[in-house]
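As a warm-up, study this chain.
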Amino acid sequence: MTSHASRKISAPGEVFEIYSMATYTKPPLSLDQQLNKLQSRGLIIENRGDAAHCLENISYYRLRAYTFPFQDNKNETQDHHFIREGIRFSEIIDLYQFDSNLRALIFHEIENIEVAFRTRLVYHYAMETHDSHWYTNAELFFPHSKRTFENVYAEIDAEIGRSKEEFLIHYKNSYSEPTLPPAWMALEVVSFGVLSHLYRLLKKDKGKKAVAESFGLKDIATMENWLHAISILRNHCAHHNRIWNRRFLIGLQLPYNTIYPFMDKQTTEGIKNNKLFAYMCCMKYLLDRINPGNQFATSLVKLMDRGGNLLSVKDMGFPENWQKLSIWNGN
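Now compare it with the structure written out below.
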């Protein structure tokens, strides 16, 4: 049980009410008690043995993220009772497994985007500058972001230092200058997030525009936005976070004047740009530039067909007839 106490203090012309922090007093629950609590809230437990085994491997607290949308979480007197009758424990597990499989699919496809972006970034700037170490040249980056550039430079240096890749060890043992290896070695071991940040800090020159256009985007700002958003989605997948009905902090720019077919203006205006569907549309567009024969759409449809009774595509921001959109049907 928790409680909040308050007291009022005053300052010249003002009165502040100060709330003390509550004390957490909830005891730990055994597996049997956890199942009893779920049952008391209206969840149907078909087989207590199977359910207990699930809770041994998927924590009660983690599973709460998948029961939450179906519970009353506003009225404290309801104790989070299920507002939808007839929901079974096995259906919650189906939803949990769908989310896990969806993360695996997205993570795999983001790998293809990350590798392609890394390759194109290094290539276009190496060709444009004729400099193997262009990423260390502060002149290529916005002057007002010098401090930020220095931070990113330090991150790259640190990640190179932590890496045990043989090609980096060979460089260090073979060359004394420059201290850091060429871009095609150095940027091979840095995270997608750092790469995204590096691209954002670059001046809007020919190299930066060439990278964006190679992915079918006319606007550099859109490329920056997509990379930032997708790198965050990648981190959610890597850390096994729920993504099925998540509202992301980064809203995506959804252009209708791309080099290749994406979505028309009316369609983009009707899509919630902070939901998963928007993210997957942008991923699909990039994947089509990398591998026109990719199976992302096919794999996604198959996965959703096995999503279980509780899966609602609206929770992920999917519009009706989404498969008919040009970005998903190949037309």
